[in-house]
């Protein structure tokens, strides 16, 4: 599929904010191919050969083999070390002020062009192999969103996913196993204060991106969960996708009884929820309100107060 014939929907925000659920829901819409967290595909998929969301090891997955052939003439031709070097030189939160400039310095611009070229070729291959006009990347990192926004030929649209900072901070303290990796492997954990700082950085950066020419829409996790169909329909409209009621038949129920019927998907990295298929219940995860220590709650609230207020989390009882 040629450039201009497909678009990229990038899910941005802080981890543990519901992006995997949103990605899986979008993946049920006609013409949408979801890829997981592409930022981690190079290392976890190509190098470590971790499992695809379909359950097959990455290099044994027919879909990803075809994508690698289309994008790079095979994964063996890809210089993953070079991608890692380029990422270190351009794709970091500390570089966002430089990336936000209309005309970055020549050295940064050169590395940026090479780095985002790998993503462009991968997205194009995903669209070609899947036959879909929309590719979803749930990498989340604001810095990568800024990098991709510099590539004018990409039709990039960013969904800024937000969740209450206290819920996010509490979630990051929990130990979650990574089923895609062999042996006992667990997702990274953060202290509440570290999570609060990251929450500020990611969401603040995406607020800045929204002031540029890149299309950005905001979706709160707390608005998605009570009313899934309207939220998905709104995202479909933002992405330029047709989403009539008949196209949302995979979502059913109301309120706390809502559910979604999900098919297996070829996602290269992300939350363990990407392995879930069949009918899933969609309900709010508010364990933090009972389980989070008061001291941690107060500290996270204080550290994230301006954006908590901006996103409406200090109104009512939330």
Low-confidence stretches: none
**What is the spatial order of strands in the main beta sheet?**
2-3-1-4-5
How do the SSEs run, as a string of H and E? EHEHHHHHEHEHHEHHEEEHHH
User: Could you give the count of β-strands?
Assistant: 8
Radius of gyration: 19 Å
CATH architecture: 3-Layer(aba) Sandwich
Shape: globular
The level of helicity is 40-55%
> In percent, how much strand structure appears in the residues?
5-15%
User: What is the fold-level CATH name, i.e. the topology?
Assistant: Rossmann fold
What's the number of helices?
A: 14
CATH class: Alpha Beta
Assembly state here?
single chain
**Broad structural category:** alpha/beta
Instruction: Provide the domain count.
Output: 1
| Main sheet properties | 5 strands, parallel
Mean pLDDT: 95
